[in-house]
Specification:
By secondary structure, this protein is an alpha+beta fold. 55% of the residues lie in helices and 16% in strands. An 8-stranded antiparallel barrel has the order 1-5-4-3-2-7-8-9. Helix 8 packs antiparallel against helix 9, helix 8 (236-255) packs across helix 14 and helix 14 runs antiparallel to helix 15 (417-450).
Length: 502
């Protein structure tokens, strides 16, 4: 693989007519075309457009990938051969690429849009007829967009920069962020159509049953949008987002009380739980497999390869779990239950009103948030918060509270919503990290005991991991308890309480 993140190339995204005009004005320069061929340009990103949302553009022509990053003034490219069209950052096995593409995280990078075009390569000569740069132009068929890439030859960077600055002086588009915006405006299929966050915007006087139906319907749509990715096993985030969407729906139905008939609320909370519960073991396995690189860094060298046995065992378990999950998601029973839920929250809910159905959502949401906030306050007051079980319950409390605020914060807190969500997320994540270390100790011993084939090195690896996790857990516990004490102070709790319930 050829990888270059230090290229001094410059890139323009322009209209062909503008380029032609600019080149005619560059009378002291000449262009010698020596290679022309048909070439497709394929734009890559994740399912949820993590790169484009950060104004990062990744596109491919042949085996070459071109990367534009708004925070990097240099133009990046790398050559990469892969058996399939889609790939993960880890497949590239290069730390520089991982850093450059970090917004994509563990998600699959897949082709989103292929643009037909012509590739032309030129030698750029100065007034002395010396070749100072290589110019590559991708002209898109039936469109006015043209990518122009200018790469200086060794020893001619300054001269090439003069030419680039001359083009810029003619008003040609050189901004990386503008390039992405231009493409998003021109090609709607590149726009972000999915987010794992609740996007529905409510009004304070919306009736509660209708408002909640909007939110739950959106969450069901998000869960459904991830099913294809789970079935194809593209990446682990599809399963994660599917589970989170269902968890949010359950939390919201639990939090808003009697907006609908109690029996119906109880029934659908149970349905959503069953939709997610079948995936519990698969998600646990995915989390541990994702953690293995981190475990390797922590382990003494002599135990490193003991993780191979554990990894292979987890992969074996994963094969059976993914089959079980896929069979469930493709089953007639699941499809019928899912369709029933969608139909209820889109239409049928009006036939099953609860006592709060006619109230304004502001009133119902504010009360739900206040009631949810009481739970961690009381739980913390009744115990010293030092046991893993209590901390885990507190984490769930904060998670439910965050979901309610994500859904209804705009009608209760207005512009303060994002600040409150960030505080809750940070606290929830820290408690979650403590809980993870605690569970890691239990899990690695469970795996060791369950493995049919194990050796001394595998046992040593588990013992070393136990020590590492225990040390990290204890260190994290002190931090969590300190932050909990701060959060649970009355002045901080008051920031979350709604005192103007109608």
């Amino acid at each position: 693989m050829n990888f270059n993140l230090l290229s001094k190339s410059s890139i323009f995204l322009i209209k062909q007519e503008e380029l032609d005009l600019a080149i005619r004005k560059c009378s002291e320069y000449s262009f010698n075309s020596f290679h022309t061929k048909k070439s497709d340009i394929t734009v890559y990103d994740t399912f949820d457009r993590r790169l484009l949302s950060k104004n990062v553009l990744l596109f491919r022509s042949g085996d070459f990938f071109y990367l534009l990053h708004p925070k990097n003034k240099k133009y990046n490219y790398f050559e990469f051969n892969h058996p399939s069209e889609s790939f993960k950052i880890s497949d590239l096995n290069d730390a520089k690429i991982e850093k450059a593409l970090s917004p994509a995280s563990v998600r699959l990078l897949m082709p989103l849009l292929t643009l037909r075009g012509i590739l032309e390569v030129y030698d750029l000569k100065n007034s002395d007829k010396k070749t100072i740069a290589r110019c590559t132009k991708y002209q898109l068929n039936g469109d006015f967009f043209t990518f122009l890439i200018i790469t200086p030859l060794k020893g001619f960077k300054d001269e090439t920069d003069e030419f680039v600055n001359l083009l810029k002086s003619f008003g040609l588009n050189y901004s990386r962020g503008s390039i992405v915006c231009e493409l998003l405006n021109k090609y709607p299929e590149l726009n972000i159509t999915y987010s794992n966050k609740i996007q529905t915007v409510l009004k304070q006087n919306d009736l509660s049953d209708r408002a909640v139906s909007f939110i739950v319907t959106e969450l069901l749509e998000k869960a459904e949008a991830n099913i294809d990715g789970i079935l194809h096993d593209y990446d682990t985030e599809f399963l994660h987002d599917y589970r989170v969407s269902l968890r949010k729906a359950r939390s919201i139905l639990s939090g808003v009380g009697d907006v609908y008939d109690k029996e119906k609320m109880k029934y659908f909370r149970g349905v959503f739980k069953s939709f997610a519960q079948i995936t519990n073991d698969l998600r646990d396995i995915d989390v541990y497999l994702l953690k293995i690189p981190e475990f390797i860094e922590e382990l003494p060298q002599y135990t490193d390869y003991g993780l191979n046995d554990i990894k292979n065992y987890l992969l074996m378990l994963r094969e059976s779990e993914i089959k079980k999950v896929n069979n469930f998601l493709q089953s007639t029973e699941f499809k019928q239950d899912f369709a029933e839920a969608v139909n209820f929250f889109q239409k049928e809910y009006i036939n099953y009103p609860g006592k709060s159905a006619g109230k304004e959502i502001y009133t119902v949401a504010a009360e739900a948030i206040n009631n949810c906030l009481d739970s961690p306050v009381k739980r913390a007051g009744q115990s010293k918060c030092t046991s893993p079980e209590i901390l885990h319950k507190l984490r769930i409390d904060f998670k439910k509270l965050r979901y309610l605020i994500e859904a209804f914060g705009n009608v209760v807190y207005g512009e303060k919503t994002e600040v409150l969500l960030k505080k809750l997320k940070k606290l929830q994540d820290e408690i979650g990290l403590y809980h993870d270390y605690h569970n890691h100790i239990i899990m690695v011993n469970y795996i060791l005991n369950d493995m049919s084939i194990k050796n001394d090195n595998t046992k040593k690896t588990v013992k070393e991991l136990e020590k590492i996790f225990a040390k990290k857990r204890d260190k994290t516990e002190n931090k969590v308890l300190e932050r909990l004490d701060i959060f649970l102070q009355k002045k901080n709790i008051n920031k979350f309480m709604s005192r103007s319930i109608k």
